[in-house]
Specification:
Shape: globular
Helix content: 25-40%
Strand order of the largest sheet: 1-2-4-3-5-13-6
CATH architecture of the largest domain: 3-Layer(aba) Sandwich
Bound molecules: zinc ion
Largest sheet: 7 strands, mixed
CATH class of the largest domain: Alpha Beta
Structural class: alpha/beta
Number of domains: 2
CATH topology of the largest domain: Aminopeptidase
Length: 484
């Protein structure tokens, strides 16, 4: 294709004409320096993403992912403590010293049942791993680590005071990592906390979200031959089914913002044995933690009713408890300026065509296959109809984040399109925008006491004017070793 000379190239041509005159080196701002650091390390960051993406690990099993991120951070001068809050795949990496302390959150767990190749058609991987990065956490962890390393390198070069702390938080999808790190007090000394998430658009997450209680109900009955002597059996599976029917009738009487969903994690062995045990796993969600607690009470009553109907016994296991996000306006405004400074991911025609093909399964896709603009910062927080364990952090320290376009515009979260795009250049372009934005925002937060103060004031005002969530987990609850 015949190329028009770009204005920059034309300028380069003119500068070249003056080559005998030595040009003074242009002074770089700290933000330009951190941008350049990310650019210089972009290949490494892409390689880290590919490694984590190619080996998707479920929550609390993310050994390769956490090792990969820890190695990168140690190579960049971070002091790393592993096994935070009793979780082998959690870690904290720190650079710099003293106050202020700025946190950046990293996630790296995958989801089950969403195996997908980095191709534009729905196509499972050839290996036996059925997991996939359908929430894009391979780019999430990588960009956060890259941002922390870039900010730390530039802060050191400029002699900027303060500590940069990268939190390696496992098992976000089951709401474990940050919940138990928060309970261990690991966020208590932060001045501000930043995060991001892969998305189908680029925007600042000045947002609220849903609280969620993760709880399992395990029924115990009596096994018997299902044909020869069913009269001697008490089916735990019957109890699970009756419980689910009860909960499905409950839905009509819950407030509209509620979400209740379940999977049966144990439904018995085979049909000729009356199942002596069965288990159902529920997520109970609402816009406020208080209402999620109300749903929990109702669901507990239904579980007891199901046990009574089937003469089984029921035991409850509370796995985790996530709070709704507490938004922060000044931190969100800061992030918006950095996201706008960096600009949205710029996708090329090949990437747009790839994403267009992945839209083929969407009922009403947006006209553009990849979002290439940044949405405005809203005046009031918007609502994310999902949950994140970032919520628990947001009630401890001023917290905000961004989303960047990393996959097909209009694709739902937790879909094969997300897996496909984050395993190739589309997701990695969004990843690098996130890394640049978080790095420069961190550098500004280290310097700008007024922004930190405004964020703290906003945090305290919001905490003072709404009901503060209290965990339903027992006081002595510790992080589970495994969740499945
Ligand atoms: Zn996620």
């Amino acid at each position: 294709m015949a190329a028009m000379k770009s204005p920059i190239a034309a300028l380069g041509f003119r500068l070249a004409a003056f080559a005998p005159l030595a040009l003074p080196a242009l002074a770089q701002s700290p933000f330009e320096k951190s941008d350049r650091w990310i650019d210089e390390h972009a290949d490494r960051l892409r390689a880290i993403n590919r490694s984590i993406w190619s080996n998707p690990e479920l929550g609390l099993e993310e050994h390769l992912a956490s090792d990969t991120l820890v190695r990168f951070l140690e190579q960049n001068g971070f002091r790393v403590t592993r096994g935070s809050a009793g979780m082998p795949t959690a870690f904290i990496a720190e650079a710099g010293s003293g106050s202020p302390v700025i946190g950046i959150l990293a996630e790296y767990d995958a989801l089950p049942g969403v195996s997908q190749k980095p191709t534009s058609k729905r196509e499972a991987r050839d290996d036996n791993n059925d997991a996939g990065h359908a929430c894009g956490h391979s780019v999430f962890g990588t960009a956060s680590a890259g941002a922390a390393a870039a900010a730390a390198a530039i802060a050191k070069e400029l002699g900027t005071e303060g500590t940069i702390r990268l939190y390696g938080t496992p098992a976000e999808e089951t709401g474990i990592g940050k919940v138990f790190m928060a309970r261990a007090g690991l966020f208590d000394d932060l001045d501000a906390c930043l995060h991001w998430h892969p998305s189908d658009t680029s925007r600042t997450s000045f947002a609220t979200s849903k609280a969620v209680v993760s709880v399992k109900f395990r029924f115990h009955g009596q096994s018997a031959h299902a044909s020869f002597s069913p009269q001697h059996g008490r089916s735990a599976l019957d109890a699970v089914e009756l419980m689910n029917i009860g909960v499905n009738f409950l839905r009509e009487h819950l407030e509209d913002h509620s979400r209740v969903h379940y999977v049966i994690t144990d439904g018995g062995g085979q049909p000729n044995v009356v199942p002596p045990t069965a288990e159902v796993w529920y997520y109970l969600r609402a816009n406020s933690h208080a209402y999620a607690e109300h749903i929990l009470e109702r669901v507990r009553e239904i579980a007891r009713g199901a046990a009574l109907m089937t003469r089984t016994e029921v035991k409850e296991q509370l796995d985790s408890d996530l709070f709704e996000l507490l938004p922060n306006q000044p931190l969100s405004a800061l992030l918006q300026t950095h996201l706008e400074r960096v600009g949205p991911p710029r996708f090329d025609a090949t990437e747009a065509a790839f994403a267009r093909e992945t839209q083929s399964e969407l009922p009403a896709p947006p006209p553009d296959s990849l979002a290439q603009s940044i949405l405005e910062l809203p005046t009031d927080p918007f609502h994310i109809p999902a949950s994140t364990d970032v919520g628990n952090v947001s009630w401890i320290v001023p917290t905000s984040g961004i989303g960047t376009a990393c996959y097909t515009h209009g694709a739902p979260g937790h879909s094969w399109q997300v897996v496909a795009c984050t395993g190739m250049s589309v997701g990695e372009k969004g990843m690098l925008v996130a890394a640049r934005s978080l790095a420069s925002a961190t550098l500004e937060l280290l310097e700008a006491a007024d922004v930190r103060k405004a964020a703290k004031t906003d945090f305290e005002r919001r905490r003072a004017t709404q009901e503060n969530p209290t965990s339903v987990l027992p006081k002595d609850a510790v992080a589970p070793v495994k969740i499945r």
